[in-house]
Design brief:
single chain, six-stranded mixed beta sheet, 19 helices, globular
Length: 571
């Protein structure tokens, strides 16, 4: 491979298709650190696709890195199908529409038909289109909730799930075999539209998606009857049309949208971190709530696969976590469907291993099988596929993860903030009719199942040495596991890389999930700590799952766990 300076010169000569890139390259002339950072490596196509800072260079998101990845995808598909088709969608991020169009041109240039949404659409609408149009793959141009300087590219398989490890590796292998300037086949966009190699996805697909979402409603008409009022913010992303459409369909007629965050804006001017997990991202919505006095605030992230909420609890707006909303949805769906006689035989809820164990307690009580899977919604999609293969997909009630992603129904294979927004509103209306808020409902569940508190720490390992430090920390934890945390004895250690759970009494249990660089510590009193490196950012993540008799005791244990793990990792 050429050195950074040679690559820079080559890009300066050949990267002429996007004037922004050429201008950027000219501006960094002679700035060695800037040049190095852009060219010292290539953005690699992994199981999460591509993600990086937008700009010029091999280590950036731009039309050339997108074209190269898409060339690899096209080559993989042509190996496996005579006439493959790919659905493409994009969100509001800077250059998302351009990257989607360029991906379509590459596919068409390789003889792969591209179905392209004519406007920005949520990630779940992309997963739906793959299945509805019987495509062999899908592309979603998004960097989810990252800051504005990022963009990304998620690839999906024929089942509507994100690509698996084997397929992703094959795409990377093919992409690495071509030169990003001379080895990519590229069709003329207008000509490809004329010949049908690129076709715009019709309105009927959008309406079919919304039909499938609406089919997951449980108590028809309850939102209209309850006179629900909602403040909604799409955080300048792709959720505005679909979320408002579904709320209108189910009778939520009084929806006030946050004006500063209604329209697409890839700069995310009013929410630098457009992540519904973060209070600052919801601040404009919370300000509007003080004026409008709604029952609930909904906030969807830029690609509308995750939703955060704030509940009007007697005039105070209280943010609920992804775990809390997941628990409420599980209980509401299960008890409502049982009451209405629509509960399937042997129902299933699927969650990740870092998601609250309260659902497991609830599952035992409600006679629901709870399946724990690795972090990543594609694993929830895999569980749906296993049920579908047996003709038992109706057993699936809900899949969710602590990071605000939920799915009810089997029409897509990714988290869906459109259906989650609908069910959250329906659930809010249900409790409103009983004179309760979601906060009241959660408190009643704590009284029944014990107080569960879930918190998380992020330990950043930046720079060139960051990956090495992360590896050393995980290795240290494996070779010298803690005996106690927060004064609670460690009673078992699960290592998902060796697929063994060892109890301190000497017993061992095999772990049947795929191998993964994750360590889990079971503590006295049904508490747990899970530690893993992030798959998309240079950080180690620690999850603390606490169960206690009172909120005060849960807070104390959680605080001590955070302090002990922080010290253990040397931060």
């Amino acid at each position: 491979m050429m050195d950074e300076k040679a690559l820079y010169q080559r890009w300066l000569e050949l990267a002429v298709d996007d004037p922004d890139l050429h201008r950027e390259l000219s501006e960094i002339a002679g700035r060695e650190e800037e040049i190095f950072d852009r060219f010292y490596r290539e953005l690699e196509f992994g199981t999460a696709g591509l993600r990086g800072v937008i700009g010029a260079g091999t280590n950036r998101m731009n039309i050339y890195t997108v074209r190269k990845a898409t060339q690899g995808l096209a080559m993989m598909l042509k190996e496996r199908s005579d006439a493959p088709m790919v659905a493409i969608s994009y969100d509001s991020r800077i250059k998302s529409d351009l990257f989607a169009r360029e991906a379509a041109r590459v596919l068409a240039g390789n003889g792969v038909k591209a179905w392209l949404y004519p406007e920005l659409m949520p990630t779940p609408a992309l997963s739906f289109a793959v299945r509805e149009l019987r495509c062999q793959a899908g592309i979603m141009v998004t960097a989810s909730h990252n800051p504005a300087k990022y963009n990304g590219y998620k690839a999906y398989g024929a089942d509507g799930c994100q690509l698996g490890t084997e397929e992703s590796a094959r795409v990377l292998e093919h992409a690495n075999s071509v030169d990003l300037f001379t080895g990519v086949k590229l069709a003329d966009y207008d000509e490809a539209l004329r010949t049908g190699m690129i076709e715009l996805i019709g309105e009927e697909v959008v309406q079919s998606f919304l039909d499938h979402v609406q089919a997951q409603a449980i108590r028809k008409g309850i939102c209209e009857r309850a006179g629900l009022k909602v403040v909604y913010t799409p955080l300048n992303g792709a959720g505005n049309r679909c979320v408002r459409s579904i709320l209108d369909r189910i009778g939520v007629k009084d929806v006030v949208t946050v004006p500063e965050q209604e329209k697409p804006d890839g700069n995310f001017t009013t929410c630098p971190f457009p992540n519904p997990e973060i209070r600052e991202a919801l601040q404009k919505g919370l300000d509007l709530c003080e004026k409008e006095n709604p029952s609930i605030l909904l906030a969807t992230d830029p690609d509308c696969d995750r939703v955060g909420i704030a509940v009007n609890h007697h005039g105070e707006y209280i943010l609920l976590t992804g775990n809390e909303v997941g628990v409420l949805l599980t209980h509401y769906i299960a008890t409502s469907r049982t009451e209405l006689g629509t509960m399937p035989k042997d129902p299933i809820v699927v969650k990740t291993i870092v998601t609250t164990s309260m659902v497991n307690n609830m599952g035992e009580d409600l006679d629901i099988q709870v399946i724990d899977i690795l972090t990543g919604f594609k694993y929830i999609g895999e569980q749906i596929a296993l049920l579908e293969a047996k003709g038992e997909e109706n057993r699936f009630l809900l899949g969710f993860e602590e990071s605000y992603g939920y799915l009810s129904g089997t029409y897509v294979r990714d988290k869906d903030a459109v259906v989650a927004s609908m069910l959250i509103c329906e659930m809010t209306a249900y409790y409103k009719e009983q004179g309760m808020t979601l906060v009241d409902a959660l408190q009643k569940l704590y009284e029944k199942y014990g107080v569960h508190k879930n918190v998380q720490s992020n330990f950043y390992c930046e720079g060139a040495s960051g990956m090495q430090r992360m590896a050393e920390l995980m290795n240290s934890l494996r070779t010298d596991p803690p005996k106690a945390l927060a004064g609670l004895k460690v009673v078992a250690v699960a290592d998902y890389e060796t697929s063994v759970k060892k109890r301190v009494d000497g017993g061992e249990t095999p772990i049947t999930l795929p191998k993964s660089n994750v360590l889990s510590y079971d503590l006295e009193g049904d508490c747990q700590v899970v530690i893993r490196p992030s798959g998309t950012e240079p950080k180690i993540k620690a999850y603390y799952m606490v169960k206690a008799d009172t909120q005060q005791r849960a807070d104390e244990i959680a605080q001590k766990l955070v302090a002990d793990v922080t010290s253990l990792l040397g931060f």
